[in-house]
Amino acid sequence: MLAIIKRAAELQGRSVSDFVVTAAQEMAQRTIEETNFIRLSLEDQQCVVDLLIDPPELNSAMQRAAKAHADLIQNT
């Protein structure tokens, strides 16, 4: 494995340590970016769109929550 890393570093004209640090930074950035996205199947995407276009009626608990939120915002 070290030989592969050395070869890749040579191909980019970098030291092994610089190559490894850069690769680790790129992987860390990619990992952070991937956690900021929600990936949905096509079926789930369609379900979200359908709910946005035609949302269901609010049940009593949601109606109370919406009223409490509105009261809180008005009193701020």
Question: How would you characterize the overall build of this protein?
Answer:
This protein is 75% helix and 0% strand. It has two domains: 37 residues; 35 residues, no CATH class. With 76 residues, it is mainly alpha-helical. The chain is elongated, with a radius of gyration of 25 Å. The model has no long low-confidence stretch (mean pLDDT 94).
Question: What is the element layout, followed by pairings?
Answer:
Blueprint: H1 2-11, H2 16-35, H3 42-53, H4 60-74
Helix pairs in contact: 1-2
Helix content: over 70%
Q: Which word captures the global form?
A: elongated
- What is the end-to-end distance? 60 Å
Classification by helices and strands: mainly alpha
- Element pattern in H and E: HHHH
Query: What's the helix count?
Result: 4
Unreliable runs = none
Overall tally of structural domains: 2
Would you report the number of β strands? 0
In this structure, how is the largest beta sheet organized?
Answer: none
User: Can you give the mean pLDDT?
Assistant: 94
Query: What radius of gyration results from the CA coordinates?
Result: 25 Å
